[in-house]
Design brief:
This protein is of the alpha+beta class and 94 residues long. Helix content is 50%, strand content 13%. The protein has 4 helices and 3 strands; from the N terminus they run ααβααββ.
Length: 94
């Protein structure tokens, strides 16, 4: 049941946040799934394509917009890497 706690907290946080769309929710859920697969570590290090595959998102622009929104709105702390050979770092705040 502890694995569902971050998702439950996220849904409580976004309940009245009109900025959050289904795509944001999908990406956040994909990040949590990736985190669970990595042993529930915080932060996670991931390539964009790894998260997009889990979230069923095909557009890089959509991914980047939503992940930056989640960062700006305070749900995650996203540290992108400009080098394609390095994974971005994502901290979970919620």
């Amino acid at each position: 049941m502890e694995q569902l706690n971050p998702l439950t907290e996220f849904f409580r946080s976004i309940e009245k946040d009109q900025r959050i769309s289904i795509t944001h929710i999908g990406i956040f859920a994909a990040l949590l799934q990736f985190r669970a697969n990595e042993g529930n570590i915080n932060p996670i290090k991931a390539y964009r394509h790894e998260i997009m595959k889990i979230a069923k998102i095909t557009g890089p622009a959509t991914y980047h917009r939503c992940i930056k929104d989640l960062n700006q709105y305070g749900y995650i702390n996203y540290i992108p890497k400009r080098n394609r050979n390095q994974k971005s770092v994502i901290y979970f705040i919620v």
